[in-house]
Every structure is written in C-alpha cells, then in structure tokens.
Amino acid sequence: MCLAVPMQIESIDGFQCRCVARGIEREVSLFLLQGEEIALGDHVLVHVGYAIQKVSAEEAADSWELFDEVLEANA
Questions:
Q1: CATH code at 68?
Q2: Which domain range does residue 47 map to?
Q3: Tens-digit pLDDT profile for the chain (75 aa)?
C-alpha cells in the first residue's frame, strides 16, 4: 500500500519546493507535476519526496481528518 501525505507549498525554486504539514517541513520535487500550474499556498499529495497530485485545501483537510481517526483508533 502506498501513502501520500497532503502538504502545503511554502516556497518554490524550479522543480523543488518546500512544503509543510502540521509543523513538519520537507523538500519536495515538483518534477512529476510539470504540466500543472503550481503556486505558493497550493496543497499537494507527497509520496517519497515527490508531489504526485495537486489537491484542494478541503481535500487536504479531509485526508488529515481520516489520518487522525486511524491514529486515534490505534491508540
């Protein structure tokens, strides 16, 4: 099973960007989203260091809500 984490873009430098989610920052490649218009503040799904899909803020929040439910159920 693969897992992609929604993160928000804070800065962009070519095909690299800095993303944040819940206080965690990561360097992320935008190489796979070359055809997409990507801007600061956008949300992307990140899998092993690559942004694989642009998502809305609502979709990102929904994903985090589900992750919280899973973590709570396993606590």
A1: 2.30.30.140
A2: 5-73
A3: 688 999 999 999 999 999 999 999 999 999 999 999 999 999 999 999 999 999 999 999 999 999 999 988 987
Pick from 38, 67, 71: which is nearest to 55 by CA? 38
The alpha carbons of the chain give a radius of gyration, in whole angstroms, of: 12
What is the number of domains present in the chain? 1
Q: What is the DSSP string of the chain?
A: ----EEEEEEEEETTEEEEEETTEEEEEE-GGGTTS---TT-EEEEETTEEEEEE-HHHHHHHHHHHHHHHHHT-
